[in-house]
Amino acid sequence: xxxxxxxxxxxxxxxxxxxxxxxxxxxxxxxxxxxxxxxxxxxxxxxxxxxxxxxxxxxxxxxxxxxxxxxxxxxxxxxxxxxxxxxxxxxxxxxxxxxxxxxxxxxxxxxxxxxxxxxxxxxxxxxxxxxxxxxxxxxxxxxxxxxxxxxxxxxxxxxxxxxxxxxxxxxxxxxxxxxxxxxxxxxxxxxxxxxxxxxxxxxxxxxxxxxxxxxxxxxxxxxxxxxxxxxxxxxxxxxxxxxxxxxxxxxxxxxxxxxxxxxxxxxxxxxxxxxxxxxxxxxxxxxxxxxxxx
Amino acid sequence: xxxxxxxxxxxxxxxxxxxxxxxxxxxxxxxxxxxxxxxxxxxxxxxxxxxxxxxxxxxxxxxxxxxxxxxxxxxxxxxxxxxxxxxxxxxxxxxxxxxxxxxxxxxxxxxxxxxxxxxxxxxxxxxxxxxxxxxxxxxxxxxxxxxxxxxxxxxxxxxxxxxxxxxxxxxxxxxxxxxxxxxxxxxxxxxxxxxxxxxxxxxxxxxxxxxxxxxxxxxxxxxxxxxxxxxxxxxxxxxxxxxxxxxxxxxxxxxxxxxxxxxxxxxxxxxxxxxxxxxxxxxxxxxxxxxxxxxxxxxxxxxxxxxxxxxxxxxxxxxxxxxxxxxxxxxxxxxxxxxxxxxxxxxxxxxxxxxxxxxxxxxxxxxxxxxxxxxx
Amino acid sequence: xxxxxxxxxxxxxxxxxxxxxxxxxxxxxxxxxxxxxxxxxxxxxxxxxxxxxxxxxxxxxxxxxxxxxxxxxxxxxxxxxxxxxxxxxxxxxxxxxxxxxxxxxxxxxxxxxxxxxxxxxxxxxxxxxxxxxxxxxxxxxxxxxxxxxxxxxxxxxxxxxxxxxxxxxxxxxxxxxxxxxxxxxxxxxxxxxxxxxxxxxxxxxxxxxxxxxxxxxxxxxxxxxxxxxxxxxxxxxxxxxxxxxxxxxxxxxxxxxxxxxxxxxxxxxxxxxxxxxxxxxxxxxxxxxxxxxxxxxxxxxxxxxxxxxxxxxxxxxxxxxxxxxxxxxxxxxxxxxxxxxxxxxxxxxxxxxxxxxxxxxxxxxxxxxxxxxxxxxxxxxxxxxxxxxxxxxxxxxxxxxxxxxxx
Lengths: 294, 376, 407
Fold this sequence. Notes:
Distance between the termini of chain C: 50 Å
Helix content of chain C: 25-40%
Structural class of chain C: alpha/beta
Structural class of chain A: mainly alpha
Number of strands of chain A: 2
Strand order of the largest sheet of chain A: 1-2
Radius of gyration of chain A: 19 Å
Largest interface: B-C, 48 and 55 residues
Shape of chain A: globular
Largest sheet of chain C: 4 strands, parallel
Radius of gyration of chain C: 22 Å
Distance between the termini of chain A: 54 Å
Largest sheet of chain A: 2 strands, antiparallel
Number of helices of chain C: 13
Strand content of chain A: under 5%
Oligomer: heterotrimer
Number of strands of chain C: 13
Helix content of chain A: over 70%
Number of helices of chain A: 11
């Protein structure tokens, strides 16, 4: 029985990491209507920034964390203003290709600047483990879970209760009307990208202590995060977290107890979930179904 | 299908096409043997891009998963001509040199086309980015699924096709002079090297499939596809059966991808799950967008782009190491640099030419006619 | 003869003479008056880019040799090309090296399936497939069918066998749990392990595979611990081996750990020890055949000093702590020796003949006592290793040399 709960705990830990990147995906989609395939690579790149600050420039953890978040915000904002803005009125395919270009650039740049060697990444949480009823729960995982919960609450509050959050939602929903009421739509989109990059950086910094840092850190996670975002609802931050946790636990249980799936088919199962959800309930578990009026 | 009747303006285009085809077929005489192989791959990618363009450029359905259809085509060919050890089998049938490779090409296309057609049904419910995500999911899952069904696909070790009887023109070239000791004779012409054979095979098929695509798209089917792309609502209200044309578009594009995948297997003489990674699907989409959505000719440029740009970007690392003294180029040896170069070029192309090469041609054309109008 | 081809050949010949890398009349391709051209593929980009150091180390060593006059008056040019760890690209790149660059031999290409994909082509074209950078058993076992192919490092199967045999001798009641990568590399190690414990009371009580596409192996380690095993074998690549240690530690599990050679370099073990808070690494066992650049034992060793100076001079920016560079130099050293033995006018046939009688006990980058040896019936160049134990931050070798003769 303890083994079963151990799998669940492990699933919640992994799921929290999926959830953190999924939040970034949800934010960008909600604020700008775009799916950013480069979200994972941007997260990885900003995590490297944090790493090099602590390892090579003598920063301690929290100052490095803060500087990294600022850097991430500037990076996201800058990318949106410089690279995405010229093409945002064009077909969506152009934006897809541009984000693919960004994937190549960030992945290549990380390998170029810091090499592909595996690195350790510091964590603000102690490396202890609690033992509750035969189930080992690591403080790192609890901390990650806690940060994700705080993030989703902050994000929900931000969208609901602040003027900027309202302006962001308005810009995404109806740019023309928003402009008429004085919202600087262009800057809103940029802020959306900036905030998403910040969320991505946090995701990377949560994952790296456990999974260790290398240029391919976020590649596998990105796919699972897409699955989590789709499952929970690509416009719902709460859904992203719920989706991530469900996915983490579900995949662990299926992988551990269904022999046919084992380790080989965990990824296809996650992707099958994407397909099924998109077909049956595209808005996801917590999203609001969008109806089109003809 | 009855022979399409040609309008007058189109006769010129047909003549140009035949001229271009002749030039393509004569090219191997002028280039080195190895270049012929590289251009053969351009031809293979062109076939895949033609198919993808039917779906994405003409019907407006984004697919990030056409590598999966190529994998289906490639594996179909590989399984049918394979003679592996341990033998591949489904149920009680052992696959061993069942067919010659050329016969498997249309078969591979049909199997992939059927898969695409079937995928088209659930895909009806998805649009835009959601469809992109779903096809992305299929492409990412494909290598893992191939690997799982080992008895059928040879698993991670893949299927080795080199030297099999089923393979035409198996390279038997003298390693020093590169003259082939056993060539292929087609219609009285002798093709002596494996590379030339690959070139002619892929481009002959590419030319034929280009013509077929052109014929399909200039008629009612093409108009229906374009109507679906421009506005599904308007198309449906004018009587275009959305379901039929969308699934048809998927089927046709998957057929093309399957043929391309089959040729890829024949060219590389090896298939395994890693030979059809997600990057293949992504590069196919890149090729279509860079070539130009909704056009056919400029796709050749798209195919050249995806075949040669990675190689060219790698050249930045220096073609030969310093040990050649004064004759060598500075050696950057920077890991990751080629990827950055590729990404930057890709973004620049998108920003400068959102319509791809076709957009450039259109702009040049409109500039030319504008000048003409002013003169008039 | 077709005219254009003749003209083209003349042009190519002229061009090639200018760059000094062509077949002069009578000589094999890749041999010119001044150069021997070797070519290979390496995962410079993609999921395995950490292993590109293998090629870089070899390249640096060749440059060092060239500065000293090269081999029999010729410099060794080593052209390595990116295949992004995709076998289809390996095939294309290898064909380019053979047909366009006209290399003398394909050398040090990395990856199991990647070399399998090109093996038939290379053997048929009679191009030596020299010192394949993979421990898969097939490269040594199938030499009768593929005489132009040879591996270098101890095979994964041999390594697994050593662990199993050692365990059977010293811990007869052991219950092993295995974390293995779900491909030929992981499975080869498993096969060897099973062979090693075959006639003993040691049992494999659980085995969990993972795919390279996995994000982490937490679930697998949890399941392995639940099996009640007291020994853990990590047949995983560095990132996942480190995670194996991390999760075992978090679960409060302290088994005896066997870590495979691909992931046991000191810098990896140091990462796994998580700033000395991870106790699961203590007393881990692994094999070694290369000198570890971070092992204090070799700090004043002449070969390691040479290694560091060669890297600093010819591979600027390379991380000297990365043991894969040492591997590259070891294999380059052996290649230079073999090329020298082929004499003043090397031919491919002569090179292949040398591969049947390798006999060198003096490779400075290998651990003392380890010899490179092949025969007409036996084509695994290195089949010896030392066992080592991780203790207080470094590896200590113990016991004598282990040898393994594959059937």
